[in-house]
Design brief:
CATH architecture of chain B: Orthogonal Bundle
Number of strands of chain B: 0
CATH class of the largest domain in chain A: Alpha Beta
CATH class of chain B: Mainly Alpha
Structural class of chain B: mainly alpha
Low-confidence stretches of chain A: 294-304
Low-confidence stretches of chain B: 266-271
CATH architecture of the largest domain in chain A: 3-Layer(aba) Sandwich
Strand order of the largest sheet of chain A: 6-7-8-3-9-10
Number of domains of chain A: 2
Strand content of chain A: 35-45%
Oligomer: heterodimer
Number of helices of chain B: 12
Strand content of chain B: under 5%
CATH topology of chain B: MetI-like fold
Order of helices and strands of chain A: EEEHEEEHHHEHEHEEHHEEEEEEEEHEE
Largest interface: A-B, 29 and 21 residues
Order of helices and strands of chain B: HHHHHHHHHHHH
Mean pLDDT of chain A: 86
Radius of gyration of chain B: 22 Å
Largest sheet of chain A: 6 strands, mixed
Distance between the termini of chain B: 10 Å
Structural class of chain A: alpha+beta
Number of helices of chain A: 9
CATH topology of the largest domain in chain A: Rossmann fold
Radius of gyration of chain A: 25 Å
Mean pLDDT of chain B: 91
Number of domains of chain B: 1
């Protein structure tokens, strides 16, 4: 059995109308666990409970094998990274880092460790500046240095990047990933941003209303979400109700609304069972109705195996892509590159063919509670 | 803070400026008129008469002690009110503001029942230690404290409310206990509000008359002595002492404000 840096066993906590419900998870040494969920799902409460701001009503928290459930927070050796990093505004960078050091046992070892840290994080030039004048990247590195000076066993990140503009966010996220990888200190990173989750996570847990809905690898969760909530949350914008017609070769045929029928490259579904067909919008290609078969333009350049007649309802810019909403008896969303979009010369009201590769159609059982 | 002088607000600019100017004139004219009635030799003569300068110093000293006591007792309460939720918090808040609504002579009478010669605290303390509140500097400080506590607590509370609680949380996770976090993070960041509170307490204490005149007529503070001169010797003598007292008190107050501004801006670049 591998050593676990953090073990949470059956933690429950009620705070007013909100509750964490019987949460159990562990984080391996050097592992980054990302907890993904919407606002109010309990992400921050869980982090604060691990850090010791809240005492759970039930359950146990072990850090590095120590039971810290009742331990005061200053002795848990957990680094908490807030949004905007909460640097002390009345202290210089040097003072901030020294504050982290002062909380631990003193000694020459610790001081030389901090000096190494400062130069490794590139802080030597800004040691005498106050936090107010620092860039986002500098603040992040100061906060990391301050936390590391206290010699933590675990990092907790509470949406540190969510207030930043997207360029800064992307570069800080990549910095953070590199630094955490180098340090090898395990971390829990809480976010509602699926891109952050995908980039940072070694393992991913999706939380809703104080419970984990799905825990797994990022690839596993993004490609095979456990239910409609997870599917929508990880960017499966097309979640379509359907029912299984039967097996066909090595796949499954699905009846969708408006008498549409598609093939999915998945087995193990019984005929007649209700399902959701989930398709990521980047996996939906669009071609002209009058173009000969096989010239469909798709983001990945492959040929679709399911072809659905559709009508373009809206076109809007979506970051570097264009988001095309179509009606094919049910709504269907596709992302196109600008190149593909102009190649097709699409306009609202056009009749098109939407293409879906059978491998891109994810199926999951549909339960009564989602009706 | 502030902005440029407004250019496009038409008549509003004029009416508001006129109203503000009128108010300032209302404050300044009586004081200037009082100053204008006295030449230097006049002031020196009154300053040399017995009891005048001792009363001035007693006022300043008592106000200083009051500010120190108010700071020590008011800061914890201000912190509790800014950070904690607890049952009866609304009542505590109302109690803190209550001295603002009580006529100061009433404060003096109420304090007399507690700290007077036969008061429920005054009597046992006198019996045990020989220390009296009635007619001593101790009584003066008690009166000043009562009337100025709202200013101390409310200003310090605003100071604490300006400190992001996440800073305290992060400080705890960095291995510091509650006392260390309070002393090294919360207090320095709230110092602007606390200094403002100390200053207001000092100003309020220096100007206190109504409560002091009842609990501790003697030893006379400056406001009491000015009143005494007004009754015994008339307007000339009392207004001369008023000018002396106001000049010293204002000079000190301006100096303190200046010191507080320097230490308040230094380092709190967050605001």
């Amino acid at each position: 059995m591998s050593f676990s840096a953090l073990v949470i066993e059956g933690v429950s906590l009620r705070l007013g109308s909100f509750a964490l419900r019987d949460l159990s998870i562990s984080v391996g040494s050097g592992e980054i666990l990302v907890i993904l969920g919407p606002s109010g799902a309990g992400k921050t409460v869980l982090l604060e409970t691990i850090a010791g701001f809240n005492v759970p009503d039930a359950g146990k928290i072990l850090i590095g094998g120590r039971d810290v459930t009742r331990e005061v927070l200053e002795r848990r050796r957990v680094a908490f990274m807030f949004q905007d990093y909460a640097l002390f505004p009345h202290m210089t960078v040097r003072g901030n880092i020294a504050f982290g050091l002062a909380g631990t046992k003193k000694g020459n070892d610790a001081e030389s460790r901090v000096r190494n840290l400062q130069s490794k994080l590139g802080l030597d030039a800004i040691l005498d500046r106050k936090p107010a004048g620092l860039s986002g990247g500098e603040k992040q590195r100061v906060a990391l240095a301050r936390a590391l000076a206290a010699d933590p066993e675990l990092f907790l990140f509470d949406e540190p990047l969510s207030a930043l503009d997207s360029n800064t966010r992307d570069s800080l996220r990549d910095d953070l990933k590199a630094i955490l990888g180098e340090l090898g200190i395990p971390a829990i990173y809480v976010t509602h941003d699926q891109t952050e989750a995908q980039v940072l996570a070694d393992r991913l847990a999706v939380i809703r209303e104080g419970s984990f809905v799905q825990v797994g690898t990022p690839a596993g969760i993004f490609n095979s979400p456990a239910d409609e909530f997870v599917a929508r949350f990880v960017g499966m914008e097309n979640v379509i109700e359907g029912s299984v017609v039967g097996a066909k070769g090595c796949g499954t045929m699905i009846d969708l609304p408006a008498a549409r029928r598609i093939a999915a490259a998945l087995d193990g579904f019984r005929a007649g069972s209700p399902v959701f067909a989930c398709i990521r919008p980047e996996d939906v290609s669009i071609s002209r109705q009058d173009s000969p078969r096989g010239t469909a333009i798709s983001a990945d350049g492959s040929y679709p195996s399911n072809r659905l007649e559709a009508c373009v309802t809206t076109i809007e810019a979506y970051g570097p892509m264009l988001k095309i909403e179509m009606d094919c008896g049910f709504p269907l969303v596709s992302y196109l590159t600008k190149q593909a979009f102009f190649g097709l010369g699409l306009r609202t009201g056009d009749s098109v063919i939407a293409g879906l590769r059978a491998e891109s159609v994810h199926l999951m059982k549909r339960c009564a509670k989602f009706h | 803070m502030g902005g440029p002088f407004p250019r496009r607000q038409g008549g509003l600019t004029f009416v508001f400026s006129a109203a503000g100017g009128l108010l300032l004139a209302f404050v300044l004219i009586p004081l200037l008129r009082m100053y204008a009635t006295h030449g230097p030799e006049d002031l020196l003569r009154v300053a040399a008469s017995p009891d005048v300068m001792p009363a001035v110093w007693l006022s300043l000293e008592s106000a200083f002690v009051t500010a120190a006591v108010a700071g020590l007792l008011g800061v914890p309460l201000a912190y509790m009110l800014s950070r904690w939720g607890f049952p009866g918090k609304r009542i505590v808040e109302a109690l803190v503001d209550l001295p603002l609504a009580i006529p100061h002579t009433v404060v003096g009478i109420a304090l007399l029942f507690v700290f007077g010669r036969s008061g429920i605290i005054g009597a046992p303390i006198e019996r045990l230690t020989g220390f009296k509140f009635w007619g001593t500097a101790g009584g003066i400080v008690i009166c000043m404290l009562f009337v100025s506590l709202p200013h101390m607590v409310n200003s310090a509370r605003i100071g604490f409310e300006s400190v992001d609680p996440r800073l305290e949380k992060v400080a705890r996770t960095l291995g510091h206990g509650p006392w260390s976090v309070f002393g090294r993070v919360t207090l320095p960041l709230a110092r602007h509000g606390i200094l403002t509170g100390l200053m207001l307490t000092y100003a309020r204490s220096i100007s206190e008359f109504g409560a002091v005149v009842i609990l501790a007529y003697y030893p006379m503070t400056a406001p009491v002595k000015i009143y005494d001169l007004f009754l015994q010797s008339g307007l000339d003598e009392s207004s001369a002492m008023a000018v002396i007292f106001m000049t010293i008190a204002l000079a000190l107050f301006i100096a303190l404000r200046w010191v507080a501004r320097i230490s308040g801006t230094n380092g709190s670049a967050s605001r």
